[in-house]
Amino acid sequence: MAASLNRATLIGHLGADPEIRTTQSGKPVATFSLATSESWRDKATGEKREVTDWHRVVVFSEGLVKIAEQYLKKGMPVLVEGQIKTRKYQGNDGQDRWTTEIVLSGFDAKIQMLGGNGGNRPPAADSAADYGRPSTGGASPNAGGQTTGGYDPLDDDIPF
Question: Would you tell me how many other CB atoms lie within 10 Å of the CB of residue 155?
Fold first, then answer.
C-alpha cells in the first residue's frame, strides 16, 4: 500500500481578525479567512490581472490558538501549514452543505507571521507547535529572517 500525504501550505493575508471560540469540552479554537492571490499581465491587452482565492483556516492546536488570538490581525501576511479537511453540515434551510478547510492541529501545524517584526512577534517558547523546530520557521524569526538563539539549521552533526 502506498503512503499518502495530506499537507497544505498557504501564504496569504488575513481577511479579518481571528475569531476565538470554545468547544463544548472547553478547548479553544481559532478560525480566520486567508486570501491568496495570483497576478499576471494579460498578453493581449497588457493589463494587470489578479485573482484571489479565500480559504477558511481552523486552528485546534492550543499553542497556535494563543498565537492567533494575541498576534494575528486583519491584513497581516502569514504562512499556515495544516491539513485539508472537507466536512458536511446542514445549512439554516436544512440542506446538506460541504466546506473545505485548512485545519491546524497536532505537532506539525504551523503559523508563521511574515513581513517586518514591528514588535508583534511572540517568543519562540509561546508556540507549542514549533517545539523542536529550527527557529527559521514558526513565529520566532527576527525581522531579517535570520535564525535566533544561535541555531543554524545547516550546522548539525546528524550522520544521515
Answer: 7
At 36, is the secondary structure helix, strand, or coil? strand
What letter would DSSP give residue 68? H
* Region class of 94: left (phi > 0), else alpha (psi between -120 and 50), else beta: left
Which of 4-13, 63-72, 126-135 has the weakest average pLDDT?
126-135
Question: Which residues have CB under 8 Å from 35's CB, separation 6+?
Answer: 12, 13, 14, 15, 52, 53, 54, 55
If we measure between CA atoms, which residue out of 24, 27, 28, 83 comes closest to residue 55? 83
User: What does the block give as the cell for 85?
Assistant: 479537511
Q: How far apart are CA 62 and CA 85, in angstroms?
A: 19
Q: What is the pLDDT of residues 17-38, one digit of tens each?
A: 999 999 999 999 999 999 999 9
User: Which residues are 111's β-sheet partners?
Assistant: 80
How far is CA 127 from each of CA 15, 52, 70, 96, rounded to the nearest angstrom?
A: 22, 29, 12, 36
Residue 141 pLDDT > 50: no
Residue 60: pLDDT above 90?
A: yes
